[in-house]
Design goal:
The structure is a homotetramer. Chain A has about 350 residues and is of the alpha+beta class. Chain A contains 8 helices and 18 strands. Strand 11 of chain C pairs antiparallel with strand 11 of chain D. Chains A, B, C, D: This reaction introduces a second double bond into the aromatic ring system.
Chain lengths: ~350, ~350, ~350, ~350
């Protein structure tokens, strides 16, 4: 079944394992006539690429993308766009331990329970490496919605949150944490360093905002824009929670405190508070779309943890190797990509560009 | 497009407006041979039915369900099951105000932006009345997964949470709040009463647990069991956030604190903490599935709120009429229904009952 | 799985058995703002209705349709349109024989093999009565494509074909056979009468043409317009073959004889011969869409035929009761409905009306 | 939209143009644990490969397939199988004429009407080269249904049909026409040679039979096994008609002549005549599945034909280059592949292997 495809009309399918020859995506439903080359995709892959600072895994992957189809004379043709990224740094190592014992918190046991068989090298299909394919597809999606501005950032690491009053959009790219608050960024350096040195890991909260989404995008009931976004965010490795607008905070309020006064505006009503995060009844209100995703700390830690072997014996396992001390950081471009993919889908639906 | 259908193999489609002659659902993909009659569905509809206590809306709807197809000699045939519920209490009133001005926090403006036209009587298709169809379909879904036990409850109202140490499963049905903590239930009486009398409303957090789900159900990547559950919960009116397992709490932890030791068990490994809420890599681990949904306070309050008219003028609106002071309460059977619908879908997929 | 739904964006789901309380369809994806009432649907149902001449089954069904949702103030709202048709003439009879022995040529054995259980009353879900739901949904589809003219007729009965030189469009509704050739219509009276009196049945070929379909509708590869039409036609009870344009005749030609010269025209190129039936590479060329469907003679005949019982013993069965001597005749409005449903789907896709 | 994907649970997506760097397919939903290597796929690609006799195009393509994902330790993992075939023989030539004028009978005009832009080199996406991807995917599908035997052959070329009494299964691979009748094969040599030398082309009828399909596969109404097969066959380039079982011949019969007596058999009832081609009510009866496809003569002929330019002027065009004199011949392995893909889908559905 289409477990590896996402989207309704702007639809992409990813394939590939972390230790196979390559990974990739096929983007189906992209309109014809868009100017597209590898140069439009590579910057987003570079943003996600590992090894860019000491706060991410040291695995070295150039993540160079190749376009194999769907583009002619520098423009999309409306036919499937095949994107290919070769795997380069597959450090040969002994996977014996991982092959025999389940890493707690990883998908190892669940995969065996489902498939009775798994590619245990680096997690195989369950590896976060698959998200490179999403980022590549997301770069194509961005070309479909040029007027929409998508921006994600890290809002908290290990429980240490930014000061929203210090929020500075221009700071996000000035630090290795995609942090909009310089003060928090400084604190996180020490925090993430200590976790990294201790072979530990940290959870994080990533926020994402999309502006320029016209009122009316989305759909009622079982394809609500917020349902699509929730599914998209939870589909990202390590994400365990999602909020639309004020999310759980709204559940603690009275109606008056959550009320969202509407006032006449140049381009339709303006919502004074936008508690709803730009979505009502599953449909965009024309206000900024606001989503938040909770990333758990990765289970790849040096501290040995009790587990069981494939044959059911008790044992202990510690995860060595090159891991992200805080996966939420590199989750930022992935969250942006999923937002772009969901919105491109809506754009085509509502613009009537569903014929390809 | 299939905005009104949900599910992959156990698939249902709902139809109907709150003020039309009837609402209903067509359940497609139900296996043949299941014993089914209206008596299997009615109790769940009664659990959701309005007017059962002073803490819910006083609209009187018998919500009697009729099965129009798909059953022969008391058993399902594998063909579509058509369920019909007549609308009875459509109190004739003047909708002039709602027709002209948008209710802030409601879907009124978004629907007009999308469709350019809407059935404004009681919210039309965006009315929570649609959830009766889900509960009816969910009752059929439960018959597909007899070994799975699904239980939802209210965990907090207006920020006042239960004491988890006082959690008593048997208390849930002993109070009008589906509250497992008798102490909290007493406090909530006063809290909800005051909100009701003030014409205000309260947000709530609903938790749901499913036990008996075998390891292996679910799928990787874009059909993760947690993605399906997140989409299902966010598709419920007023839900603005979802957590799987520990959700946002996990984002504040270090890897060691979120570690989930696995120990040998009679039926596969046992997870000591189940922080993950029974799902890893999108696939069930065999542990209890745990989900939490945040319900915002309904926007239907007596306090006038600024808004705009269809023609863009500034005005004020207060929502009179019969409304739930805390929609989260009646959200409990709906959350259970969506859980049942998602799991029935998985059951058929993994049992190989996808042929109908 | 969605065995009972058809269409991508203009999507309908049918439900109901020939001997249940009712049958119906839910039409999802219909644009908002279309003027719609029962009066727009009833004439097409009447065209298909049994008992209108001695050449069709004498079962009496008023086939009165009711719209239960999706329409407000006489216009569609963009939400699901629920259509309901009550079953009236379910003559109580003894189905013992059909319950125990499989009718050769019917779906009885196949249904038992698949479901292990079936509603044997009048064929249950496999009854051609289901096509009434298609005709009702097709009537809504026609409103989506007002500029497209769809016309079907019977081209041959029992091997006796019309004289294409005598083709007169205005004659089609002047005889009980939807026959465009008055001479053939006269011959068919005797032919069908003799079959009816002998308790026999006759096969037929139904042709359908759609004009006004703009070049560009359709899609390449796995959703070719001709693929969609072929699937739609073969989904009709008793259809065993489909031709697009010249169909099998083209397979006997040389390239020169099948060449289709293109000449400049007021609205794009004109194809001199239109051998292709208005479709090239799966996409409409702007020429008339031409499809032909082969209806087998119904297996419901009085002549006893060898068969087996549910328990595997050899026996004989003859099908008594009220049957169509030539199901192809009443197939005409069904073929038209399927053509309308496929084209409405394409219209929405290419007009960018996929948002509902 | 998924115009480039086919199948419900065994689902494949193809990508690539005839003159791009490569073409390929992603097979999603293949069960884990199947032994698979390039060696299982290559023989089927070789059967379709051009240039194997003087009766097919002389374009030289090695069509070497590479598996990029979804296989570990020689077995499928249940994750997507990415198949890649490089394009080698893209003879550089001047496409100016084809770029400016539409080839009658080709998809040129329809593509421009739809996309406003096309890759005119060798037909781009509309080139029959895409069928190599189907054959590769079909080879994987065959591994899913080892007990099903699929066999296709050419039944007629240019109207010259085989003598069914001379049918000899073992002859099919003994001649370049996949012809089961040695006498016809001899006649076709001269026939196809003359067409080839004259720069003409010939239509053909391809028949396909699948044995070993258990009763019960398939589904009612809108996913009938015959509907799926009809859509699959018509999706093949140049196919303009499809017959299930006796097809159009049945439309000329009386019920008695089309009756299909059932007799007790070792493995369920045996149908004496199997007029229905192994399908009743959309569901397999356990008898051989029989399908016939009509291939038109390719429009690529040397005789100049009237046409129009992109700018609407009248002109003439003759198609030079390396073309198949009878595309139906190389259509044989493609028809077999589509049959295998449809049946693999059904196998997984009915075996309950839909979880991946």
């Amino acid at each position: 079944m289409s477990w590896n495809s996402f989207g309704r009309v702007f639809r992409f399918t990813t394939w590939g394992e972390s230790h196979g020859p390559a990974i990739g995506a096929v983007v189906d439903g992209c309109p014809p006539g868009l100017v597209l080359s590898e140069a439009d995709i590579q910057p987003w892959l570079d943003k996600r690429r590992p090894g860019t600072s000491r706060f991410t895994t040291q695995r070295q992957e150039p993540d160079q993308v190749r376009i194999l189809s769907g583009v002619f004379d520098g423009r999309t043709t409306g036919t499937p766009i095949s994107l290919l990224i070769e795997n380069v740094d597959q450090r040969s190592k002994d996977y014996g331990e991982v092959a025999q014992a389940y890493r707690p918190g990883h998908a190892d046991y669940a995969y065996d329970a489902k498939y009775g068989f798994r590619d245990y090298r680096g997690g195989g299909r369950s590896s976060a490496r698959e998200t490179a394919s999403r980022v590549a597809a997301g770069a194509v999606a961005r070309l479909v919605i040029p007027r929409v501005r998508i921006r994600a950032w890290v809002e908290a690491i290990g429980g240490d949150a930014i000061d929203t009053r210090a929020f500075d959009d221009s700071e996000i790219d000035n630090n290795p944490f995609f942090c909009p608050d310089p003060g928090a960024a400084r604190r996180w350096e020490a925090l993430v360093d200590s976790a990294r040195k201790a072979g530990s890991s940290l959870g994080a909260v990533v926020a994402c905002e999309a502006t320029g989404v016209p009122a009316g995008w989305g759909a009622p009931l079982y394809a609500k824009l917020d349902s699509e976004l929730a599914a998209a965010m939870v589909s990202i490795n390590a994400v365990k929670g999602v909020e639309i607008g004020d999310g759980f905070a709204a559940a603690a309020l009275r109606g008056e405190d959550n009320a969202d006064p509407m006032r006449p505006g140049a381009n339709g009503p303006v919502f004074a508070a936008n508690h709803a995060g730009g979505i009502a009844g599953g449909i965009a209100t024309g206000q900024p779309i606001r989503v938040r995703a909770a990333f758990k700390p990765t289970s790849s830690i040096l501290t040995p943890v009790e587990t069981v072997t494939r044959t059911g014996e008790a044992t202990e396992i510690a995860t060595r190797g090159r891991h992200d001390p805080c996966v939420g950081i590199r989750g930022v471009p992935v969250v942006e990509a999923m937002m772009a993919l969901v919105l491109a889908d809506q754009a085509l639906l509502h613009r009537g560009q569903c014929g390809w």
